[in-house]
Prior knowledge:
Blueprint: H1 19-34, H2 40-55, H3 60-84, E1 89-95, E2 98-103, H4 104-130, H5 133-142, H6 147-176, H7 183-214, H8 231-250
Antiparallel strand pairs: 1-2
Amino acid sequence: MxxxxxxxxxxxxxxxxxxxxxxxxxxxxLVMVLTxxxxxxxxxxxxxxxxxxxxIGAPARTVALRFSEPLFxxxxxxxxxxxxxxxxxxxxxxxxxxxxxGHKDGLVEGLQIASRIMGAxxxxxxxxxxxxxxxxxxxLSWLRVPGGFIEILMFAYRxxxxxxxxxxxxxxxxxxxxxxxxxxxGLGSFGTLAGSLTIRAFDHSQSTTVAMVQRGYDGTLPxxxxxxxxxxxIVLSIFSLLVMGAVWKIL
Length: 251
């Protein structure tokens, strides 16, 4: 279960900050990133969030995994914009009779989009590292996010670990029986693994439904409690937003 954990294992300076304030700050910074006129501010946010992730003790491997997919998507966006968007030719070449050209204005636009992607992902990742899941759900409830959506998130978060452990057991059993020794056997084993997980997911949903109904579940979860805001946390949040707003205005 610790492989998919969303927060750090050790105490850090953001641990006791109210999750509602962290959510509000993160949402505001996200809006700044998405509305920035260039690539400098998103890159500044990316660097700041990476530094904070290191300071609070986020595992380097987890950080790398979190950024691997967005980095690939960003690279594809830059490549597509470079090759298929723009009018100012940066370079041209003839490959096997096929003419290709890269465009300077397309490259600039692609880099801007990529920077926004990485900046937004860094904000969400830092929020995940700094906020335990139950506090995150409590913050969403306070922000008036629909209760049904929160319930789905809570059940999904609970059973993703169960299915992950089931998948590891099945995978190790298949691997011990040389189920991935060749490409063909690997594809067959992967299909079996996917089918088994689907069946187990349905079984878990049925057993969970019966257990919840027997315990009086009527479709709504109890309201999540919140502690009063601390003035020091409010001041720190406002100061952080003012600093980010000033940087956003300058860059």
